[in-house]
């Protein structure tokens, strides 16, 4: 097992016999792992081992294929073995094939899971000792837990696992260890699109996870060193933080790393001497708890090197923290009450990482700050008013990462920025106006040129600066330049605009504001000539001064653009007529998402009226705030249209859902792929002759769409017409001033299964309307001033899900709801006048889920709830008057048959972020894309 000395340095690494490890792993439950063919496993091994570059590959191939068979179709096994075999001799390949570990794993269990364990054990055997230490430490994180690359490397450094060589720094070595573990598949990157839980710092994250089987191996290697209850625990993940540390572990003095974790939002209150027994701890991570203070004993941790304690509100502990001279990593982001840093910070000679972002009360950096010569990472973003930044930076020549977003006292920064020769990442978003006394663009160009020519500079973020900026040609040397939200870019060299976005990891400039120059006959639209981004939003088109300027950007040739938004201010004066301007803004045929906003023309140019030939690939179309538009272009020409949004078009009267092709023939097969239609605040709109097919409709503040239909349609028409709404499943209607019994649209939706009605005042129905809703499976009624629920709700006997939300005057449920024999889910949310649930509740025999939320007047649940034998889930949230009833044992017995119960009685506080620890709350968000 891994052993670490009691002193400050890591001692030798002693590995247990592999047989013992294999036996321990054998107790873990099986995994469902995808199976590959032996041939594919061999191809993976060849790639990982760089097999094709070897001179002896003909001799090695039979051995390699035998090893690939032992992988039993598991990619993880092939990847780890392939990497391990790289640069190994013929004899070593043969030794791997005949290694006794294969027999051990097979003798434990013939399942493929143990074959991969055998391969992992073999790969682990060939690890160098330093890498075994770093790998095993990852076992402290629970399965599936994200690991932040930078944090992990700094923890390795703090624990002494990484020591700098004469050639490379400890950070560089830590990076190389990460690469090696990735190549072996002992670490993996999260899947693209997976939901990750990030901790809210204003910084970039590189995250890794560990496969469950690899995690089991790491745990077995660690043996009892991660077991808090054991006598040899050195690395602890502590969730029961309410207990004194002495009662949680038998030997707290052996602890070297301590991660405190909370799974609720309650502030953590530390005992005064909480950590004094762990006097040799080197890593203390409090980033996963909601804590406003640190224990007094923090000052006794003289060996502490890594401290992550964000959002601290008690500034009195700072002096103790900055007396810990061994610290090389400090994260105090979001600590609002920090106003000053003590002069003693300058004595922390080994400090490498300091995060003071979002420390909004921080006033000044002390003079001694300039002594932090080893500082590599400094983040002061959103610590707006701190003074002394340029003076402090002058001598910090090892800085690689510097965050100054939204800092307001940066005069003098151009004079010192050239000293930071190791700088790789610089965030100057939201702050350019605070750097210069005036706004001549040559100042910004020289300043940015100085940054871009720093020898190691890679990533410059200048986003969200409303200040004149000139980009120099030297910016083309960067790997990444971020300019989104910069509305006054006065110059963008062609060499920068043409930078390959892939090698740059993306030139992020999706939003461009047109600015008119009063001294010239043109605006700044010409800056778009050479850029070809994936997304482009052109704002303030009313400032364009000539059609020639629009032609010069060659919009139609920008084949990379997948999303384009053209935006005018509807109220602003124009230099060029909107229709004439739009005539020149023909997008590329590859466009998939198209938005027109603020266009005040009455009609459209020819290319819009023939839109199917110009934009055949559009899948999403949005037209918003077109006040003078009376009829739509022939959208039925778009063969791939899936999502259509019409919004705030007060003058829109007609939507012809067919179009003529050939000699007066009508193509009725259009809109065959339409999935979602949103019609919001188009009060005059009539749709003729038929509603297109769509699976989801949202109609808001558009009364004519609801009433402008025939009284009814025959069964044959509704079922056979290709343009009937019969394929629709979801309909949302909001803010209608028309009573429900006039919604003739409902006669045309025979297949409707999900209906959501919100903020509609008159919901009294008619027998015809009720008949039209007989296929309904789900109904949501939200925000009504009515004191009674309409009787027609109880007539929907096929209803399976019912949500009643924000009926603040509702006092009781209608008696005929007892007819809902197929109802499976009932939700009552913010029905503050509802006094009780009915006694007939037991008659809802199919009910599986019951949710009662923010129903203040309910004091008891009916006894009949215990007769709901199919009820599997019960959620009660923010119903404080129910607490006394629930606490009685006899009433808990009535709920004993319900498998899943989630009970929370306290009233929600609008000012509190529920269930989100303060340490995970973000700094101010970046400006969102439209």
From TrEMBL:
GO biological process per UniProt: defense response to bacterium; innate immune response-activating signaling pathway; plant-type hypersensitive response
Domain (R13L1/DRL21-like LRR repeat region): residue spans on this chain: 528-649
GO MF entries: ADP binding
Keywords assigned by UniProt, alphabetized: Leucine-rich repeat, Plant defense, Repeat
The UniProt record lists the keyword Repeat: yes
Domain Disease resistance R13L4/SHOC-2-like LRR: 316-505, 744-888
UniProt KW Repeat keyword: yes
Domain Disease resistance protein winged helix: 140-218
Database matches in Gene3D superfamilies: Helical domain of apoptotic protease-activating factors, Ribonuclease Inhibitor, Winged helix-like DNA-binding domain superfamily/Winged helix DNA-binding domain
Tree of life domain: Eukaryota
UniProt-recorded name of the protein: NB-ARC domain-containing protein
Organism the protein comes from: Triticum aestivum
Upper classification of the organism: Eukaryota, Viridiplantae, Streptophyta, Embryophyta, Tracheophyta
């Amino acid at each position: 097992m891994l052993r670490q000395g009691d002193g400050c340095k890591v001692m030798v690494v002693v590995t247990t016999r592999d047989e013992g490890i294999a036996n321990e792993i054998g107790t873990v439950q099986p995994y469902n792992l995808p199976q590959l063919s032996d041939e594919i496993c061999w191809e993976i091994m060849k790639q990982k081992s760089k097999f094709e570059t070897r001179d002896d590959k003909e001799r090695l191939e039979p051995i390699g294929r035998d090893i690939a068979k032992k992988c039993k179709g598991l990619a993880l096994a092939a990847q780890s073995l392939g990497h391990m075999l790289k640069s190994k001799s013929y004899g070593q390949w043969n030794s791997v094939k005949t290694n006794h570990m294969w027999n051990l794993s097979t003798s434990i269990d013939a399942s493929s899971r143990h074959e991969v364990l055998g391969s992992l054990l073999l790969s682990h055997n060939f690890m160098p000792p330093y890498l075994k230490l770093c790998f095993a430490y990852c076992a402290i994180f629970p399965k599936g837990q994200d690991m932040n690359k930078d944090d992990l490397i700094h923890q390795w450094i703090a624990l002494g696992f990484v020591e700098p060589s004469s050639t490379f720094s400890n950070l560089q070595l830590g990076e190389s260890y990460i690469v090696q573990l990735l190549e072996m598949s002992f670490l993996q990157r999260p899947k693209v699109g997976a939901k990750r839980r990030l901790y809210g710092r204003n910084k970039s994250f590189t995250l890794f996870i560990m496969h469950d089987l690899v995690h089991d191996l790491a745990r077995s290697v660690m043996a009892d060193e991660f077991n808090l209850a054991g006598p040899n625990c050195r690395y602890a993940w502590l969730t029961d933080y309410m207990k004194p540390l002495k009662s949680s572990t038998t030997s707290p003095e052996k602890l070297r790393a301590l991660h405190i974790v909370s799974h609720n939002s309650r502030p953590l209150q530390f005992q005064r001497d909480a950590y004094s027994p762990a006097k040799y701890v080197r890593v203390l991570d409090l980033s996963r708890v909601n804590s406003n203070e640190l224990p007094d004993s923090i000052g006794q941790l003289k060996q502490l090197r890594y401290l992550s304690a964000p959002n601290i509100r008690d500034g009195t502990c700072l002096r103790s923290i900055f007396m810990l001279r061994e610290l090389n990593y400090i994260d105090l982001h979001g600590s609002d009450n920090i106003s000053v840093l003590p002069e003693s910070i300058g004595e922390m000679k080994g400090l490498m990482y300091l995060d003071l972002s979002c420390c909004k009360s921080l006033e000044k950096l002390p003079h001694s700050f300039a002594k932090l010569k080893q500082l590599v990472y400094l983040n002061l973003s959103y610590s707006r008013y701190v003074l002394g930044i340029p003076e402090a930076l002058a001598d910090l020549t090892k800085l690689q990462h510097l965050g100054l977003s939204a800092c307001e006292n940066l005069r003098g920064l151009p004079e010192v920025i050239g000293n930071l020769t190791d700088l790789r990442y610089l965030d100057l978003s939201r702050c350019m106006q605070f750097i210069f006394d005036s706004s001549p663009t040559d100042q910004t160009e020289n300043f940015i040129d100085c940054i871009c020519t720093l020898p190691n500079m890679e990533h410059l973020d200048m986003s969200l600066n409303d200040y004149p900026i000139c980009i120099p040609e030297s910016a083309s040397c960067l790997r990444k330049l971020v300019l989104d939200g910069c509305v006054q870019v006065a110059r963008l060299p062609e060499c920068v605009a043409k930078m390959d976005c892939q090698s740059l990891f993306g030139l992020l400039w999706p939003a461009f504001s047109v600015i008119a120059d009063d001294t010239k006959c043109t605006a700044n639209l010409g800056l778009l000539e050479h850029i070809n981004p994936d997304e482009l939003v052109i704002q303030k088109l009313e400032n364009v001064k000539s059609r020639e300027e629009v032609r010069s950007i060659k919009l139609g040739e920008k084949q990379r653009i997948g999303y384009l938004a053209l935006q005018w201010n509807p109220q602003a004066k124009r230099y060029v007529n909107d229709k004439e301007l739009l005539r020149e803004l023909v997008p590329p045929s590859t466009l998939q998402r198209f938005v027109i906003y603020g266009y005040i023309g009455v009609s459209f140019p020819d290319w819009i009226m023939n839109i199917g030939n110009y934009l055949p690939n559009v899948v999403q179309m949005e037209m918003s705030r077109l006040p003078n538009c009376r009829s739509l272009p022939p959208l039925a020409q778009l063969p791939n249209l899936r999502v259509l949004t019409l919004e705030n078009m007060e003058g829109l009267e007609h939507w012809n859902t067919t179009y003529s092709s050939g000699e007066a023939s009508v193509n009725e097969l259009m809109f065959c792929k339409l999935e979602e239609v949103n019609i919001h605040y188009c009060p005059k709109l009539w749709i003729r002759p038929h509603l297109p097919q769509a699976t989801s409709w949202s109609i808001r503040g558009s009364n004519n769409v609801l009433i402008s239909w025939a009284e009814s349609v025959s069964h044959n028409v509704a079922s056979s017409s290709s343009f009937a709404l019969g394929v629709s499943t979801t309909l949302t209607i909001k803010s209608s001033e028309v009573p429900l019994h006039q919604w003739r649209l409902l006669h045309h939706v025979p297949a409707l299964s999900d209906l959501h009605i919100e903020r509609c005042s008159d919901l009294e129905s008619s027998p015809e309307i009720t008949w039209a809703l007989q296929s309904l499976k789900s109904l949501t009624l939200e925000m009504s001033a009515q004191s009674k629920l309409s009787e027609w709700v109880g007539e929907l006997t096929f209803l399976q899900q019912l949500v009643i939300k924000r009926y603040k005057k509702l006092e009781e449920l209608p008696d005929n709801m007892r007819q809902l024999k197929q109802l499976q889910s009932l939700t009552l949310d913010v029905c503050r006048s509802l006094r009780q649930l009915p006694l007939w509740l037991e008659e809802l025999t199919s009910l599986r889920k019951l949710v009662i939320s923010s129903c203040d007047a309910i004091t008891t649940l009916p006894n009949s709830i215990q007769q709901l034998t199919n009820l599997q889930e019960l959620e009660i949230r923010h119903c404080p008057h129910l607490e006394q009833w629930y606490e009685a044992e006899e009433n808990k017995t009535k709920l004993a048959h319900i498998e899943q119960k989630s009970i929370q009685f306290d009233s929600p506080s609008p000012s509190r972020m529920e269930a989100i620890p303060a340490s995970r709350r973000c700094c101010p968000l970046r400006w969102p894309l439209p």
